[in-house]
Amino acid sequence: MNRKLSLLALPYAVWLFLLVVIPILIMAVYAFTTSDSAATLENFTDMGIYASVFVRSFRLAAIATLICLLIGYPAAYFMAGEGSGFQRVALALIMLPMWMNFLLRTYSWMSILENNGLLNQLFQKIGLFSLLKIEAFQMLRTPGAVTLGMVYNYLPFMILPIYSVILKLDRQLLEAARDLGANSAQVFLRVILPLSLPGVLSGVTMVFVPSVSTFAISRLLGGGTQMMLGDLIEQQFLGGAYNPHLGAAISMVMMVIVVLCMALMNHFGEGEEQAVML
User: Fold this and answer.
1) Could you read off the pLDDT of 92-129 as tens digits, one per residue?
2) Which of 80, 161, 235, 262 meets the CB 3.0–4.6 Å disulfide criterion with 167?
3) How many other C-beta atoms are found inside a 10 Å radius of the C-beta of residue 170?
4) Which residues, 6+ apart, have CB-to-CB distance to 216 below 8 Å?
5) Mind listing the domains of the chain with CATH numbers?
């Protein structure tokens, strides 16, 4: 039986080795060598000049993740408490933007936020610009525009895992808590919230990881003024500042940081689960 399982897992192991292990090894070789194939650590020390890009990337990703959580948790909680018909419609509406191309969704926000876009045209028609004595709001090429793009594109990844966990909660636990005298707020804080933390941590991971490494959103909505780690890595491999060794080093550091963040969130998630069981 174990031999059969091993044979069934062989294609997956080969696929994993070719598309995950080998690329990581190639990236590590580039990160620790120079263009002359000499071993070096200068690629990592040279990253200091891009410290502001690291700070900006993690700051905007954290803000976008927090906003997604503040919007996504109430939405998921409300959906899970409604009937099946409402849940199907709500899930379809949440998933509908994801059926469109990622770049197309981002381009649509450019037409909304630009100086002659829909929002500024609306503000102009209602006389807001005349009142404030300005020509238009500068919404594109700002950190707010990049954050908005990340929230819009990644919000479903926060809602869906939280919704799935809350929907599967044992309703007998909620009834038992109410029978023991807990009010609605206590039931939520002491039962629902702790039991839904695995979904929260999954959502946080699924939003934070792509947000910190995005480059299309920051390029289109940030207009090149809000460079993030994804833009920096692409610049090292494909841009005028061609330096794949530095790009590989930045990729490795970012990968390690993201893995540590995921491990930390999983650790807290296991701790919360054990606390609830006790």
Assistant:
1) 999 888 888 888 888 888 888 888 888 888 888 888 77
2) 80
3) 10
4) 102, 103, 106, 230
5) 50-277 (1.10.3720.10)
